[in-house]
Amino acid sequence: MTIPETMRAAVYHGRRDIRFEEVPVPSPGPGELLIEVGTVGVCGSDVGEWAHGPHQHPVDAPHPATGHHGPIIPGHEFSGVVVGLGEGVDERWRGSSIASCGSVACGRCPACLRGETNLCRSYAGVGLHRDGALAGYVTAPIECCLALDEAGVSLDEAALVQPMSIAVHNVARAGDVDGQTVLLQGVGGIGAFLVCALVDAGARVVATDRDAERLAIATQLGAHETVLVTGDAVADREGIVAAVGDDELRVVFEVSGSRPGVLSALDLAPRGSRIVLVGIQKAPVEIDLARFTLDEKVLIGTNALVRETDFPRALALIASRRDWEVIAPRVVPLEQLVDEALLPMSEGRPRAVKTLIDPRAVAARSLVGREESPAFSPAVAD
Ligand SMILES: [Zn+2]
Ligand SMILES: [Zn+2]
Prior knowledge:
- The chain is of the alpha/beta class.
- It folds into two domains: 6-160 and 328-366, Quinone Oxidoreductase, Chain A, domain 1; 170-301, NAD(P)-binding Rossmann-like Domain (Rossmann fold, 3-Layer(aba) Sandwich).
- The chain contains eleven helices and 18 strands.
- The chain has helices at 44-52, 110-113, 155-158, 161-174, 190-200, 212-221, 233-244, 259-268, 289-295, 310-319, 337-346; strands at 6-14, 17-24, 32-42, 77-85, 97-100, 103-104, 124-125, 137-141, 145-147, 181-185, 204-209, 225-228, 249-254, 274-277, 298-301, 330-333, 355-358, 365-366.
- The strands form four sheets. Strands 3, 4, 5, 8, 9, 16, 17 and 18 form an eight-stranded mixed beta sheet that branches. Strands 12-11-10-13-14-15 form a six-stranded parallel beta sheet, sandwiched between helices. A two-stranded antiparallel sheet has the order 1-2.
- Strand 10 (181-185), helix 5 (190-200) and strand 11 (204-209) form a beta-alpha-beta unit.
- Helix 1 crosses helix 11 and helix 4 (161-174) packs across helix 5 (190-200).
- The chain is globular.
- One zinc ion binds at residues 43, 45, 76-77, 163.
């Protein structure tokens, strides 16, 4: 199989400095796949790196686990087709369509041995700490890739499996939610995926947001009640309490990451409930811990995803529905990464819950579902 020597890539050089360059096609290391990229999702952490970073990208100093140092290709939510194999990889991977979650873990440290690979001592992310998928090709370890053969999802849909894994992990952190009423604060990005994951897990979902359009999407995805919040703590509380009704809230998912959001979560969570902090607070918040003791409330953190459990569950969830254009209506070419995704997202006016990039596309197009999905023909020839 002939693989070209160079490829087009979006290369991050620093804050607000992404350049579209011709760079060498990477070669897969031992246990890795060379993937011709199908579709890539752009997410909040990509926006954070572009607008305010580098935070995670090892541009200024080498990454302790990957050794990457310098400009980097982002893109950590992706799908594609396997066109090359590193040493020791089973020949059957060749030609497979895959989804990747980009999680790289050592498999040997105490956290990995406990099954918490997201907390690995030497955790690294493809597209965060080593070159990612906003390019023609990417390499990734087989452990963070799932073959799509049996799943029946398109390459566009497969790019949604990684963010869905984050939502599945949020739910796993909360524990059993079947038959329980949960409050979900913030449905703009990961919150929309969380609606799907919660509904799938049997929860009754009360969703809040400051944006009516996002709430309409949450309803389409299966949220049972929605409440438009305004920032007026008293009025918002009244609206949420009315939407919860006679049931008792068992879990509050705080996704907004805002200070009013976390204060509302702490206030609304009743005795014996769990609060899952999905959104990352930018500054410390004072908490009355006596209430946590006396009310037996539980505060729960959540970070990334467990590739061994959350990722396959997320693939099954993506395969179980066909309305993903609600979340990701448009797929745009690589060169529109900044104008169509990073810039509007950084200004709080994203074009959609999820903007997808197709590095092979020359013009913007709609999401392609599994029925209308054409057979993927790799650009390389045998
Ligand atoms: Zn992401
Ligand atoms: Zn480890």
